[in-house]
Amino acid sequence: MRNFATDRHNWSQIRSSVRGCVLMFASILIVSCGPVSKNSSSSFTSSWVRPEDPQEQIGAREHPLVVAKYGGEYQNEKAERMLALIVGALVAVSNDPSRVYRVTILNTPKVNAFALPGGYLYLTRGLLALANDSAEIAAVIAHEMAHVAANHATLRQKKLASTEIGERVATEVLGDSAPARIALAANQLKLSEFSREQEFQADAVGIRMTGKAGYDPFAGARFLETLHAFRTINQNGLEAFDDSSFLSSHPSTPRRTDLAKRHARFFGAPGVGKTERERFLKGIDGLAFGDSAEEGFVRAQVFSHSGLGITFKASKGFRIENQTKAVVISGKGDVAIRFDATVIDRTTSLKKYMNGGWINGLDPSSIELKTINGLRTASGNAGADGWNFRIHVVRIGTQLYRFIAASSQSDGSGRTNTQLQSELIKTASEITDSFRKLSKRELAKLTPLKIRIVEFKADDTLVSLAKQMKNGGNALRLLRVLNGLAPGEIPPTGFQMKVVSD
Q1: How far is CA 457 from CA 152, 342, 498, in A?
Q2: What is the pTM of this model?
Q3: What is the CATH number of domain 448-501?
Q4: How far apart are CA 430 and CA 219, in angstroms?
């Protein structure tokens, strides 16, 4: 969740939902071909984009929307130089070496790569962290360049929708009028996915380019296998892939992997071509991993935001998903909790805010005013259309933090609605009561995680290296996946490995 203050009561501006019961919302969607959460900086260009390119206007127009969607551009000179060398090698063997490309690293942990008309190519830092050598990145970039060369991005552009989405209505909690519950998505970008035929075509062309450039042609298949393994990891409760992910909307990984290997065999048996693993690892050493300071950090069951100076802890059995404008906590049956922030006038009391009409089905008699962890809070119950809600707000100056917990009024267990509501209140309170301000000492320790390159020593084990990982749960599994190690595989002494550290 970014450091933001939304307009008071203007919930139609906030995307995401809690199990579909708080806010149904259309968000910017780029369904892309690479696997798909942020700092701002500058992108780099492998060569200057030609102003006379008729597709340049399309890419230039949509570029700011892409950057905004994916948390800004990520600046890392070592990674940029490494990518520039790969792009240059691929352009030299392409069917159109005069074509120019603008390559942007997006500051998000989501794993994705995609292209826009006019030669705009995008790689997320999440994807860079997952790859293991230059050949794998070359395969990804060549795939995207193939889409551009075949004008797939232009054809896809015809399906672009940059209009208000008025069909999906926010349910239950929000507002008294239908217009107040309509999810507006004006000026948001939506691109439909490439067809399977286009994907297979880009795979074939991309693998040929990768091999012709001297890279390992089997790298693409290798990376697809890594993607599949990475997707199985529930990393800190966060999904590595969103709706615009490679694996959720494109041909199945096993089939694509098999076809990728068939195309690669044109160049010979596995082992041909360069990988430039050492150069690649040097390029990503120190790369940011996971959430950024701007959006807050999820570490195991704890969410902390250095910019806002706040933290809270999810109960055991819950997972935290850090979205762009909200945090969603889910678990324990159908219970889900949405956390976000807004602003409140200094003269407005919490009780008046709670009774402000933004909560459908609110029981005014249930409103409680308390001081928890030195902060003024208000809580209340609501019910509408088969759902129970527990609303909890916390005030710090003019900043207001909101927890909206929701659960069904009937779960098939035979329990009464009163019992279910009581359980919801108890579950929500375990989380909301943990909300507090961070101390100066805690703020100083709250820093982004990074990819660090270490050498596997003779006395090392994967278990001992996993203990160095700071990502939280699944450390050993993530260590294997990040380093492309198969189950049971032990790296040789001297093997360069990626670990997640602070």
Answers
A1: 47, 50, 13
A2: 0.74
A3: 3.10.350
A4: 47
